[in-house]
Design goal:
Shape: elongated
Number of strands: 13
Radius of gyration: 26 Å
């Protein structure tokens, strides 16, 4: 985390504290100190805490000015303008989420403070629905207070879970419930666990009832449970239930180049919708050959490649429009980004443009 982002967070937090005398404000410095010690040493943390206290004293003087709204304050306008200029949208969403968490941990949640953070979120162009969803998720003290909508995923051991109101993943040995909230505008994921098992997020102990950001590449592990990977969580939100689920099953495929012992030796794997599979290796090891076997350009000497049970070599007509292939750089456009090249090639392969 950059120092400028941290200073912006401390300024907003100090202003949140200053606008209302209610709540256990004595806990605020302890909460901030605990947060800072995760990323900084004791000496640097003390320096930040000194600045934080200076901000509180400064903004308490600001409250003496009569204003129709706190966000009309020149100080707040300057802070917001600086943040809007300097930071990306995902960083601004993080600031708001962290502010809400600080409010909850410090036990200083009051209508005036929540209203102020909501006003700041509006100035950051964060949608009201996403703000309310994030607020309710972070401040929830038990699973009955978790928002119940399509931006929420429940992970538990219940095999018979049957509702379309939220998304669900079964993890058979999980004791308790893991909830995931998606902030769709920035594809940010938050997690919260209710239970008594010892779980770890990227080797960091998960405290029940505490909210954590679940970033790309993250994994939740426990002694008995199957690991919960970021890719599995994100695919639960990406997969459109109105579209058919696609599976690719490769069964013991083999291939040899003419007059050579080189080629593909018995190889099997399975992939599903929402997964990203990478084929890695040095020059000449067979990456292109394998891709051409998977897309049907080459026929294996043994084995099968099946898409939803259809053989890619024997059922080409049935699979038309289901699979697309973007060739190597001799047919790519240098002026386009990687994403644009993939997007336009896929659009042309599938005969549609969105």
């Amino acid at each position: 985390m950059s120092e400028s982002l941290l200073k912006a967070l401390m300024k907003l937090f100090a202003f949140v504290i200053s606008i209302d005398r209610k709540g256990a404000a004595r806990l605020t410095a302890d909460v901030l100190e605990d947060y800072l010690l995760h990323d900084f040493g004791k000496e640097q943390t003390n320096d930040f805490l000194t600045k934080f206290r200076d901000y509180i004293n400064l903004y308490r003087l600001e409250q003496n000015t009569e204003l129709d709204s706190v966000v009309d304050s020149d100080v707040v306008k300057t802070i917001v303008e600086s943040i809007n200029t300097e930071f990306e949208q995902n960083q601004k969403v993080w600031l708001i989420l962290q502010l809400i968490e600080f409010i909850g941990d410090s036990k200083i949640s009051t209508p005036l403070r929540i209203e102020f953070v909501n006003d700041i979120a509006t100035l950051f162009n964060i949608r009201e629905f996403e703000f309310e969803n994030g607020k309710d998720f972070i401040l929830s003290e038990n699973n009955s207070q978790i928002p119940w909508n399509q931006q929420v995923l429940l992970i538990d051991s219940n095999k018979d879970f049957a509702t379309s109101e939220i998304k669900h993943i079964t993890n058979e040995r999980l004791n308790g419930q893991i909830y995931v909230l998606r902030i769709s505008s920035t594809n940010t994921f938050l997690i919260k666990y209710f239970g008594d098992s010892e779980l770890f997020l990227n080797s960091r102990n998960i405290k029940p009832g505490r909210t954590y950001i679940f970033g790309a590449g993250s994994v939740i592990r426990g002694e008995r449970i199957s690991p919960v990977y970021y890719s599995r969580v994100s695919s639960a939100f990406i997969q459109d239930p109105n579209r058919p689920f696609v599976s690719m099953v490769v069964k013991d495929i083999e291939y040899q180049h003419k007059g050579s012992k080189n080629g593909i030796y018995p190889f099997s794997f399975t992939a599903y919708s929402g997964q990203l599979i990478g084929i890695m290796g040095g020059s000449g090891v067979g990456k292109s050959t394998l891709l051409n076997l998977l897309n049907g350009n080459l026929k294996p000497s043994n084995g099968k490649v099946l898409i939803n049970g259809y053989d890619i070599n024997e059922n080409k007509e049935e699979l038309e429009g289901v699979i697309g292939y973007v060739p190597q750089d001799d047919l790519l456009v240098d002026e386009l980004t990687v994403y644009q090249n993939l997007y336009y090639n896929a659009s042309l392969c599938f005969s549609y443009f969105v």
